[in-house]
TrEMBL record:
Domain of life of the native organism: Bacteria
Protein name as it appears in the record: Transcriptional regulator
Alphabetized PROSITE patterns for the sequence: CNMP_BINDING_3
Name of a matching Pfam family: cNMP_binding
Length: 228
């Protein structure tokens, strides 16, 4: 990967200086995981930061015996694994491949070393971590919203963060309804029902052949999510 691609693809790298980019790329390790594989395990000790080059992962935390909640879906351009390397504690959650994924990892000591050398990178990382905290707060606030509003909010966030603009609307990966339900904190049946309704209204198009969801009427979805 070229340094320009590295800084364009990853918001975390957008303000890093050229030497930082070059050095990080020279030490980055490539990984590929098949669908369903755990990339990180909650409570395990971790010593690397990961970047998502392609595909999707689910951030999942155990709650009580045998059940879990999905906290986020991360995709191309995101990073994860910063928490354990910054506070030197075990991994806070599982991270599971929702599709085949390609990742880059940077060893903890190397990354910490560069944070001290590149204040722009340091600041950018803080900004992105604050953004995650804001999202977590919005999720808490959304808890009391009707299921359709919550689901529209999830779809709009995925579209804003990862959507490819196409003639048919914003295209996102066909996330299994179970995972969509999980991350929205509503039931699978309810999710299926609402997705079908949105499909009937023509606001979304579900393309199972190409594993894609098209957010055809993004404006209406934003309206429903209370974002405009
Ligand atoms: N609420 C969240 N939203 C997005 N990513 C998260 C959230 N909670 C944990 N993560 C990521 O999941 C990772 C699991 O390993 P770490 O605790 O090292 O670092 C964690 C974060 O990068």
């Amino acid at each position: 990967m070229h340094t320009e691609v590295f800084s364009e693809l990853f918001p975390l790298m957008s303000t890093a200086n050229p030497q930082t980019l070059e050095w990080l790329l020279s030490i980055a390790v490539e990984h590929e995981y098949p669908i369903g594989r755990a990339v990180l395990m909650e409570d395990a000790w971790g010593n690397a930061l990961y970047f998502v080059v392609s595909g999707w992962v689910k951030v999942r935390r155990t709650v009580g015996e045998g059940s879990s909640v999905a906290l986020a879906i991360l995709g191309r351009g995101d990073f994860f694994g910063e928490m354990a390397i910054l506070d030197e504690s075990p991994r806070s959650t599982d991270v599971i491949a929702l599709s085949p994924v390609k990742l880059l990892s940077i060893a903890r000591e190397r990354f910490i070393q560069i944070l001290f050398k590149d204040p722009q990178l340091h600041h950018r990382m803080l900004q992105l971590m604050v953004r995650r905290l804001r999202h977590a707060n919005v999720r808490l606030q959304m808890r009391s919203s009707p299921p359709a509003v919550k689901l529209a909010h999830t779809l709009v966030s995925l579209g804003e963060n990862y959507g490819n603009q196409t003639a048919q609307g914003k295209e996102i990966f066909h996330i299994p309804f179970k995972d969509l339900a999980d991350v929205t904190e509503i039931g699978v049946e309810e999710t299926t029902k609402i997705m079908e309704k949105l499909h009937e209204k023509g606001w979304i198009k579900i393309d199972t052949v190409n594993q894609a969801i098209f957010l055809v009427n993004f404006r209406q979805l934003m309206n429903l999510a209370g974002k405009v």
